[in-house]
């Protein structure tokens, strides 16, 4: 996902808007694998201050995930916003707070994916009232009833 920013380089301090979308390949964040059900869409603004770009944007992603209760696969929509600085590659090398760029294009992929990761819930559930699986027989309690005796029944 790239945005062309030559116009902003010529007009320091001016804010320009952009929209972009990209179908990302699967990502692995630590132990969590994420695949995308549709292109991630991003819209926002970029401004050049003479040294670096500030990109402020809103993004939405639809990620394929597994319900933590019933293990059903479903797509979860995740909306997030971010504001990041992009500094010309050679000038400031390894700075955790900024992203590098070169030429008159900003490559947004890493900023988008980093911020998406921050928004990912630790455990996703397919719906608020998902009943999950029976701990005894493994039946999906959303669709079946089983006769297992669980501890709750003794209360
Ligand atoms: Zn579920
Ligand atoms: Zn059961």
Protein model, in words:
The chain has 2 domains: 2-124, no CATH class; 131-155, no CATH class. It is elongated, with a radius of gyration of 22 Å. A hairpin with a 6-residue loop joins strand 6 (52-66) and strand 7 (73-88). The chain is mainly β and 155 residues long. Helix content is 10%, strand content 43%. The longest helix has 11 residues, at 109-119. It has 2 helices and 9 strands; from the N terminus they run E-H-E-E-E-E-E-E-E-E-H. The strands form 2 sheets. Strands 2, 3, 4, 5, 6, 7 and 8 form a 7-stranded mixed β-sheet that branches. A two-stranded antiparallel ribbon has the order 1-9. The mean pLDDT is 90. Bound molecules: zinc ion (2 copies).
* Uncertain regions spanning at least 5 consecutive residues: none
Please state the overall shape, judged from the principal axes of the Cα atoms. Answer: elongated
Strand content: 35-45%
Bound molecules: zinc ion
The helix/strand order is EHEEEEEEEEH
Termini gap: 55 Å
User: Class by helix and strand content?
Assistant: mainly beta
Rounded mean pLDDT is 90
